[in-house]
Known about the structure:
- The complex is a heterodimer.
- By secondary structure, chain A is mostly helical.
- Chain A is 72% helix and 0% strand.
- Chain A folds into two domains: 50 residues, no CATH class; 212 residues, MetI-like (MetI-like fold), CATH 1.10.3720.10.
- The radius of gyration of chain A is 24 Å and the shape is globular.
- The relative contact order of chain A is 0.14.
- By secondary structure, chain B is mainly α.
- Helix content of chain B is 72%, strand content 1%.
- Chain B is built from 14 helices and two strands.
- In chain B, helix 3 crosses helix 14 and helix 13 packs antiparallel against helix 14.
- The chains are: A mainly alpha, B mainly alpha.
- At the A-B interface, helix 1, helix 2, helix 3, helix 5 and helix 6 of A face helix 2, helix 4, helix 5, helix 6 and helix 7 of B.
Amino acid sequence: MASAVAQTKNDQPHQARNWAVLSPSKFLAYLMVALGAIVFFLPVLYMLSSSLKQSNDIFKIPFQWIPSPFVPENYTDAMKIAPFGRYFLNSLIVGVCTTLLNVFFAALTGYGFAKYSFWGKNFLFIAILSTLMIPFQAIMVPLFIIVRGFGWLNTYLGLVIPWAISAFGVFLMRQFILSIPNELLDAARIDGDSEFGIFWHVILPLSKPPLVTLAIFTFLDSWNNLLWPLIIITKPEMRTVSLGLTEFQTLHGTAYNLLMAGSTIATIPILISFIFLQRYFIRGVVLSGLKG
Amino acid sequence: MTITTAALKKKGLNIYTKQRLWGFSFVLPAFIFFAIFAFYPMISAFFISFTDYNLMNDPKYVGLENYARMLSDARFKIMINNTLGFVMGSTIPTILLSLGLALVLQRKFIGRDLVRTLYFLPIVFSGVVVSIVWRLLYHPFGLINTLLSPIIQDSPRWITSGDTAPWALIILNVWQSVGFYMVIFIAGLQNIPDDFYDAARVDGANPTQSFWYITLPLLKPTTLLVVVISIINFFQTFTYQYVMTKGGPSDATNVISLYIYLNAFQYQYMGYASAMSIIMFIFIMILTLIQFWFVRTEDITYV
Lengths: 292, 303
């Protein structure tokens, strides 16, 4: 698995020779793929464009990609109708907390499984791994009952804690930490580092690449999650962006320009992080191919 | 930390026992977490599935009634049909498209990275956002019908008609999923060692032969893996249906996840919802076991 990750960055030298023989059919294939990419991008452009239009310009024929008049007020209007700022803040708090917990516990648990031997280790590892087989829908009713029992309905705790550790993250980190040489740990031990100190000073810094990938995907999942907030959040001020947007659509389903503005707001942080961290996004997909 | 060490030494624990305790204590929080938030709920769901339960009253044991009800529930059959239709309708085009794209996009050409990015981009959008945007795209006077109007006389009604709505959701799903599987295919292609192609070329094979006799057979594990993952993912589809169509018109796009949600949290049939979720769990479990098995075979390198 680690090798698959390492290799995504490299390009295959054997492909280079295909350059010389660009037949018409190949050229056609490239052209179609490139045109397809533009078609794939149109919905995103459509969202942006419609978010800046007057509501009756959205269905205007012929269709205008560049809004005229330009109505950036849609964004402030949308914010007036629904507290997107608050939703945004909620999602951010939930996303950041979930991500930090996941990163810490995935690394710690992965470290325990990779570098120590203790009684019942394999059993515990397989038990944790087996939770990957549980679809969320299968446990959402009892999970709701548990969270209600803890008094966590309509709270950040309720939104964060059930997602604090992912079996996939544990698996990912165990695989990675296995490849860290034991000599490094022993050296730290000789220097008088405690076992947790080794985790903190040696393992965590070395595990940065997979942790960044895990962090991105955890944040993305948290930010985009709809079903769980839908179940446990009833107070408007506790809504996440996904839930807030869904409720907004239920109430103002035909205010398309405002809906598009809200959708754009909901997408901005993800889009910005994607632009800067694209490499990690793609690496994460390759890894999560193992997750499903 | 030295205090702990000293304390342990006093108790007479040797270094190996200490190490074991450390290792155990590192994995213990996670195990407790999964016990509370995964194992217990799973067992609990199993028990609830044999009861009549809503949040107002205590659960009442009803035996296999909830399971029997699935067999007689005409709506449940519709959900199963719709879900399987969505899964099959999405999986086949998604895989063909993502494989085709991977084959083209693994080669170097000007602007390749941009093209890859554009195909990948839909993944990062939330299901809610794309559902809202595509609802507008599918509007009777939306962009899609505007673009189609010169070609097609009768504009499709997309999500407002029971005949076209399932396809509308499949198209949306394929659009959002292709980039994901494309990346997995590209990684699979890059795992095939160059030596194989070099050897084939020395033996006089042309690119087409290389493709049929090297690329495709060696891509088989990746393809099987992608098929299983996509089935698992698509089977659990919820957000598009909830946000875009609410399962309508008249259940035409209602799927099993949405039906479980509705039964549990709208109709208050938590027992029935749990019974359905147990069936869903068994289905996903079998698929995941197949996936684990593929991953294991995947790990074998070709060299």
